[in-house]
Amino acid sequence: MSHSLGPAQGPGSPHVAVVGRANIDITVRMPGPSVVGRTTFASSPATTPAGGKSLNQALAASRAGAHASLIGNAGDDHWGAFLYRPLTDAAVDASCFHLVPSASTGIAVIEVDPDGENRIILARAPETELTGEQVRSRLAELHASVVVTQLDLPPDAVDAVFRHHRARALIGNLVPHPTLGPTALAPLDLFVANEAEG
Q1: 2, 82, 127, 196: which one has the fewest Cβ atoms less than 10 Å from its Cβ?
Q2: Which residues, 6+ apart, have CB-to-CB distance to 124 below 8 Å?
């Protein structure tokens, strides 16, 4: 599935390919800290089809005027289909975002405390994790000028990004996979991390 360029995009816009995960966010607001062994009553859950750093980065790139593509997988279920909505609304190219048959879509449960701080619990679906071959073949389809990748993907997927991208700029995001040492990050032009992950 592909989409036309949005109003802010044009022939000279950079092509940004984002490689990583997309999942459903279920957010609850907590009245205070939870206590082990006790039930804590939270707000009604807010379910949004805009979870995962990569999906959000693809949306942001498109809204900023780039031609954005998302390379990722989700389950071929209700939640996976739900994730297409924000991509379509933002004119993100989803031709390399695939729904995997008989797989579940990943879910992030986000607890927000009264101070606005959050805890994120990610329940990944192993069947939807990107493989090295999927990354290689989809990057070859896109010919992006900028590639942004999550670094906590399976090592073979990260390695495939490093080896097979042909972009002018390579950006790595999030905490690296434990098997990736500092030397392995040398191909990056830019590394981005949240404050608590730096």
Answers
A1: 196
A2: 21, 23, 106
Orientation of helix 155-164 relative to helix 132-142, angle to 10°: 30
Q: Measured between alpha carbons, how far is 66 from 77 in angstroms, rounded to an integer?
A: 29
- Dump pLDDT digits (tens) for 116-134: 998 889 999 999 999 999 9
Closest to 101 measured CA to CA, from 85, 70, 77, 131: 77
d(CA 54, CA 17) in angstroms, rounded, equals 10
**Minimal CA–CA distance to 48: which of 16, 89, 12?**
89
**Contact 104/127 with Cβ under 8 angstroms?**
yes
Please identify which residue in the block is written with the tokens 């590394």. 191
Q: Are 83 and 24 in contact (CB under 8 A)?
A: yes
Please report the beta strands in 41-158, taking only residues with DSSP state E, as ranges in sequence order: 46-51, 67-75, 97-100, 107-112, 118-123, 146-150
What is the widest separation between alpha-carbon atoms in the chain? 58
The ranges of the chain with pLDDT < 70 are: 1-11, 176, 194-198
Torsion sign across C-alpha atoms 59, 158, 166, 170? positive
Q: Under a CB-based contact definition with an 8 Å cutoff, are residues 21 and 54 in contact?
A: yes
Q: What global pTM score does this model have?
A: 0.86
